[in-house]
Amino acid sequence: MSAKQLEQAAQATKTVFVFPGQGSQKAGMLAELAEQFSSVQATFAEASEAVGFDLWQIAQSGESLDQTEFTQPVLLTASIALWRVWLELGGVAPKYLAGHSLGEYSALVASGAMSLADAVKLVNLRGKLMQSAVPQGKGAMAAILGLEDAQVIALCEQATASAEGSVQAANYNAKGQVVVAGDKAQVEAVMALAKEAGGKAIALPVSVPSHCALMQPAAVQFAQALEQTAIELPSIPVIQNVNAEIATDTAALRQALTEQLYQSVQWTKTMQYVQDQGIQYIVECGPGNVLANLAKRLPNIEKAFPLDSKSRMEDALNAILVAEGKIA
Q1: Which domains, and CATH codes, for the chain?
Q2: What are the pLDDT digits (tens) for 98-118?
Q3: Does the predicted model carry a pTM greater than 0.90?
Q4: Is 101 designated active site?
Q5: Does the annotation mark 100 as catalytic?
Q6: Per the residue annotation, which of 100, 111, 166, 211 is the catalytic one?
Q7: Does the CA dihedral 90-111-1-9 come out positive or negative?
Q8: H helix count then E strand count, the chain
Q9: One of 101, 210, 235, 264 is an active-site residue; which one?
């Protein structure tokens, strides 16, 4: 399907596609679908040639899959493989695309804004820069559950005021679910304060504190790579992480991708935006179902579908074709 055909098909639908970020990876991902659809391994071969190492081998064996410089291109490639299978099967073109953190790059590739080859090279570099920006063991991330956004922000300010270092809200994932990131001591202070305030705090097993001020050195270098990458306006609108808005020019798109490294992921606002536009169906295009599960809590969403197995792909395909009036 051409970019123009995608754009025209997307305008009439009530479906949004969302692409997951780090944390959704698992060894053996897409193995079942690869047996049936040659486009899955073809997509991995295309991306592997671009980055110079075997992404399918990493995806299947799990070797080095927890290292962010490999995790990011593997996840992006898996998401685009699923997107291509969806289109191959005649799936509905969504009205909007959105991606959580790394997933924003998957959304941009799906929209035609950048090539898969350029995107996997970008996110491989992004992972390297993020890892080198903070010494091992210095940073941390934690999920804070059961508190209002404003409470979490206040706890971050309290923890930062009491000592050197920083911590801030990194991901606004849903009502009552905010991830914080920053210097390890400050993150641990927020966790303790959150428990005192009646919330829950869960340390996340990550090697890099994403979407916080510690990533600013990485952002400076990454901006240079973005400037050298060919980017067009998406054929299907992509809702950006940093402001839950749609870029109107490529300069704004590049700026948003740079800021995404050290600013919060506004996923709660992104989901509110799609509901305000009359979206009723959410499809998670990537390994796992984290975003689909978050979407099930939304009051105006009728159904959320993951795509990461043959049965899930078929369920989503048929249900949305019926709901959108494409088949009886």
Answers
A1: 3-133+214-323 (3.40.366.10), 139-206 (3.30.70.250)
A2: 999 999 999 999 999 999 999
A3: yes
A4: yes
A5: no
A6: 211
A7: positive
A8: 14, 9
A9: 101
